[in-house]
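#lab-general

N.A. 3:47 PM
ok so I finally got the sequence cleaned up, no stray characters, all 611 residues accounted for. can someone with queue access submit it? mine expired

B.Y. 3:52 PM
send it over

N.A. 3:53 PM
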Amino acid sequence: MATMRLGSKPEEFQLEGQTWICKNELPSDISIKVGEVFFQLHKFPLINRSGLLHKMISESHNDDAKDCILELHDIPGGAKTFELVAKFCYDVRIEMNSLNVVALRCASEYLEMSEHYGGGNLMMQTENFLEEVLGYWSDSMKALLTCKDALPHAEELDIVSRCINSLAGKACTDPTLFGWPTDGQASMMKNFVGGSVLWNGIGRTGREERSPGADWWYRDVTFLDFPIYKRLILAMKSKDMKAEDIAGSLVQYANRWLPGLTRHSGSQESCNAFTTSSSSLIQLESDQRVLLEQIVELLPPEKGVTSSKFLLGFLRSAIILQASPLCRENLEKRVGAQLEDATLEDLLIPNLGYSIETLYDVDCMQRILDYFISVNHPERSLTTSPCVEDEGQLIASSTALTSMTMVAKLVDGYLAEVASDVNLKIQKFQSLGALIPDYARPSDDGIYRAIDVYLKSHPWLTDSEREQLCRLMNCQKLSLEACTHAAQNERLPLRVIVQVLFFEQLRLRTTIASWFFANDNPDTAPRMLPKIDSGQEQEEMLREQDLQNLSYQEMRSRVSELERECSSIREEIKKMEKPKSNWNIFIGKFGHGMRLKKSGSTKNITPPNPN
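B.Y. 4:20 PM
back already:
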């Protein structure tokens, strides 16, 4: 910490109760009251240094020293600062540092301690030292922190703006280029008091530390009150600081001053002594709401500079604190713009509305997904022909398609989580699942699982509602495991089970047809076995051929079985007059119909767990 020593005389002041007394040969002839503290001083040293005190003493008509009392309740820094001013007037040794220079500078201006009242007066001394302080990051930060005790004088003297511009310039520049000291948070707080190493009256204390990386200044600025911090951030933006650094600082500031911003608050960062102290927490919800809204306004608009995890944390807190609709809409759009980076856990926002119908805020998820779909339309660009000059457009389309696929998987997982809520209306479930276009899902296993969970949790749905819900999935895009489960799923409508069996049969027939084509093609036909000297190796190759032929026979048997089952199902459907009454017949006859014949015996296919 930068320090400067002024004066040459030894200590002459002594505190007795609430009164400072100057111990010298002459009795005091003036009493100055600052707050609740009295100073028993002498007129001559004061009028030689202070224009204000000279005027006040001159206007005093009573020459009786015991009755000459002045009051200076408005002096910046209060009694503590006036004590240093009085010692300076008596040429008593004092130490000026970055913690008291602002108050002394403001007090010298208030008391009119200019060069007109003696050379090397306090106004000039403090101004010169303040310039020295602004050359260091940690000292500039300490000076800025003390400005709140000297307002509005620090604003009138432009000290606050000078400190802010100094800090913004240093934060926007790599500190290692110029060797600027960048003491960390712990060092900054520890060095508020301490010894000094002097050289020509100016020195530094402590060991210089530099924090690597662009975030070396994040923690220090969290000590600032938000109005000053906001001015600092705006100054950094005007100096073209990277949006990522601005967002990182805002997130760290929010983590310090808004408790419960993230789900997991047990990190070391949030458990340090500074963060958990009662003085660093905003207790009133109204203050927290205002702070959150202002931080959201400061967030850079660029996509990806703030992680989706923190944006969703901001959104969750905004809902809890009942922030303005504009603030919540802003956060929802930011999340929607980069929804592919979100996680399922963060999207499960509890429903805290007045009329709580569902466990999670599905309407909020709907709005986020709506905004994502509105800004991602890869199908428009995919319809154009791929030309060389449209290479950039094709890259953008590919990126959008990848994002859409990731979001489709995320939405399917979200639907599977909320589907177990018995209060979730089928219209909300269906509208959320229908937002994802068909091309975005390479496989429909995820949406099938969500539908199955919903049907299991809502057994009272009618057949028409079940069929309407199952339209969200494409039976042709189910995996073999999902098809096997769906074919035996009693919760699915009969029409859906028929479609599953039909498409599985069609898939197997297509596979066999391609196999026949490969065998009939001379170029792709299996080659004749080469002559092998070893009879054992030739026997092994013949065994592999037999296994291939056996697999082929199993597949043909499987296709024949599916054809017979589909024919039986068609006959049963024709005979059914009431689908509901014949459902048990169908299940009893065909619920376990998917069997695989192997070596003359039948083997049941065990349905997989949908979960």
